[in-house]
Design goal:
Blueprint: E1 2-6, H1 11-21, E2 28-33, H2 39-52, E3 56-61, H3 63-67, H4 94-101, H5 107-119, E4 126-129, H6 145-158, E5 164-166, H7 174-183, H8 206-217, H9 221-227
Parallel strand pairs: 1-2, 1-4, 2-3, 4-5
Helix pairs in contact: 1-7, 7-8
Length: 230
């Protein structure tokens, strides 16, 4: 099976890539630049990871998406939400509010449809590989298996080559994704899972906190210490 992977340079997309490669092949890694604060770091990380796995890497610029959102992921004047590790599972409270502040309109839907255009040029059957996960699906509906099913129903009509979206991580939480990454010897030193674009991952944004918690739950305190500024 051939595939295109959505590669942000973070934990989920990288482990999804590695899991897919256990039994399949990939031809292309796509990274999207929509003006997010971490765009430069994400592109660099994705490039390192693509090189590690021998994949062609392409960056797709979507400047219009930046113009259509006030998301704290993009808006340079907006502060990123602050959480504690203990608040990460409070989907109806702090975690839910955090998700609202970093929401980008139809981001994953757009990414998948762009990737499907590239996938139509591959040998068949072709797949679009995404790093969704059960943990963040609680506050980000476009990380859920239901979302993926709906997208595949749409692609049945909008593509002629039976493009299918798959996510090897969709049923896993972050702890389980880190565990799989360790098993597959994913290059954790290449990752960038931070919402900011600083020189080192901040360690305090929601994305950093989820990765940090998962590393600690997998007895990877030294690795966590090396990856984050705080």
């Amino acid at each position: 099976m051939a595939g295109v992977v959505l590669l942000s340079g973070g934990l989920d997309s990288t482990v999804a890539l590695a899991l897919f490669l256990e039994n399949n092949s990939l031809e292309l890694a796509l990274t999207f630049d929509y003006g997010q604060k971490a765009s430069e770091q994400e592109i660099k990380a994705a490039g390192r990871i693509a090189k590690h796995y021998g994949l062609w890497h392409e960056v797709v610029e979507l400047p219009f998406l930046q113009e259509q959102t006030l998301s704290a992921l993009v808006n340079q004047e907006a502060e990123l939400p602050a959480l504690t590790i203990g608040e990460l599972d409070d989907a109806q409270g702090k975690a839910g509010l955090s998700a609202q502040s970093v929401w980008v309109p139809n981001r994953n839907g757009l990414f998948l449809n762009v990737a499907a255009v590239y996938a139509e040029n591959l040998a068949q059957p072709a797949y679009v590989v995404a790093g969704f996960n059960r943990e963040e699906a609680a506050t980000f509906s476009d990380n859920s298996s239901e979302f993926m099913t709906a997208v595949n129903q749409s692609l049945h009509y909008s593509t002629r080559q039976n493009i299918t979206v798959v996510s090897p991580t969709v049923g896993l939480n972050k702890d389980e994704i880190v565990r799989e990454g360790l098993r597959l010897k994913v290059p954790f030193d290449c990752l960038w899972s931070c919402y900011t674009g600083q020189e080192q991952a901040c360690g305090v944004c929601e994305s950093c906190l989820r990765l940090k918690r998962a590393l600690l739950h997998n007895n990877q305190a030294e690795l966590a210490k090396s990856m984050f500024r705080n």
